[in-house]
Design brief:
- The protein is globular and about 65 Å long.
- The protein has 336 residues and is α/β, with parallel strands linked by helices.
- The strands form three sheets. A six-stranded mixed beta sheet has the order 2-1-3-12-4-13, with helices on both faces.
- The chain folds into two domains: 168 residues, D-Maltodextrin-Binding Protein, domain 2 (3-Layer(aba) Sandwich), CATH 3.40.190; 118 residues, Periplasmic binding protein-like II (D-Maltodextrin-Binding Protein, domain 2).
- 42% of the residues lie in helices and 20% in strands.
- The longest helix has 23 residues.
- The protein has eleven helices and 13 strands.
Length: 336
């Protein structure tokens, strides 16, 4: 009995301290957070992250500032985020398509496996032309491209971007030759095609939807395997209507932090991200911008990035657009 009496105070103390210790592991930011967007304002990454930031401020209880740091296909901003302190106060945002490309383009030494990722949206690319361009449908555009090899100009957000990747896949499947014109982001690429500076663009549906509704871009096909509805316009047919074996091509958009970010910070981001991904505001945005909602967190997001890496990096390398073989980064070729 004496032995039990001596142990009782210790047991009570343990019961009191245990929940306090668990609480200490729940990370709550004490100052504003910065999200570096490595692309110009108005592009798919920028538009997505601004909604996520606004929705995530509520559960985190802190202001989240979005800072655009474009350049070098997004690698400048990504490097800034990589070099920042691993304290949870600097995040970045990007697409899986761009993230997996940086090592094979010799823009960063890190691979997608070095980042914890969260993806909120999936957006296919839309093959679109200037409103006055003579192509009536996708088959007509391919015919023109084959009749004028290397002459049809196609804008993109830059080498390795989602639009450029879609173009490279399109070239592989159709056998066409075009003049690729890279810009410093998705919005400038779309504007270039609207103005007639370039003939065509294959940027993401999110970046093209407004100009399609305004009838300043003529959409010919989307790079998924099902029709895509653009509100206020109608359906854009899938590229598989013409090319049955065309691989699903597009990008997931969301947030990233370096893999060695403290686990309690990652857990807090995951919880806040989940709330933002389920928000009415993001749902309305997805409907308006013709994109598909997702809610991929950590391991699920990594699996998605692994799949994207196989298709994207090997397409770029096989077409001569990437400098380094994906094999050097243990990225397998896509299964046939």
């Amino acid at each position: 009995m004496m032995h039990l009496a001596r142990l009782l105070p210790l047991l009570i103390l343990a019961l009191v301290v245990a929940p306090l210790a668990g609480t200490a592991q729940d990370w709550k930011p004490t100052r504003p957070i910065t999200i570096i967007v490595p692309w110009p304002a108005g592009g798919a990454t920028d538009l997505t992250v601004r909604i996520l930031a606004a929705e995530m401020e509520k559960p985190l209880g802190q202001r989240i500032a979005v800072v655009n740091t474009p350049g070098a296909t997004g690698s400048i901003g990504m490097k800034n985020a990589w070099d920042a302190a691993r304290d949870g106060y600097t995040w970045t945002a990007n697409s899986d398509t761009s993230l997996v490309n940086y090592p094979v383009l010799d823009l960063m030494k890190t691979t997608h496996r070095d980042w914890v990722q969260w993806y909120a949206l999936f957006t296919p690319s839309i093959v679109a032309v200037n409103a006055e361009y003579p192509a009536k449908d996708l088959a007509d555009l391919v015919r023109i491209m084959k009749d004028k090899p290397g002459q049809v100009s196609v804008a993109s957000a830059g080498v390795g971007s989602s639009g450029h990747t879609a173009l490279e896949v399109f070239k592989t499947v159709t056998g066409i030759s075009v003049r690729h014109v890279p810009y410093a982001g998705g919005n400038p690429a779309v504007v270039a095609t609207v103005s007639g500076e370039t003939n065509a663009v294959m940027q993401l549906s999110l970046e093209e939807a407004d100009m399609i509704r305004a009838k300043k871009l003529k959409p010919l096909a989307n790079t998924s395997n099902r029709p895509l509805t653009v509100s206020g316009f109608g359906e854009v047919p899938p590229v598989t209507n013409w090319y049955a074996g065309f691989p699903l091509t597009g990008s997931h958009f969301g947030l990233m932090v370096p893999k060695d970010t403290p686990r309690e910070v990652v857990a807090a981001i995951t919880k806040a991200f989940d709330a933002a991904a389920r928000s009415d505001r993001l749902r309305k945005f997805a409907e308006e911008k013709a994109v598909f909602l997702t809610n991929l967190k950590e391991g699920e997001a990594m699996k998605t990035a692994d799949e994207a890496a196989s298709v994207v990096t090997w397409t770029l390398f096989d077409n001569g657009a990437a400098k380094i073989s994906p094999a050097q980064f243990n990225i397998p070729k896509p299964k046939k």
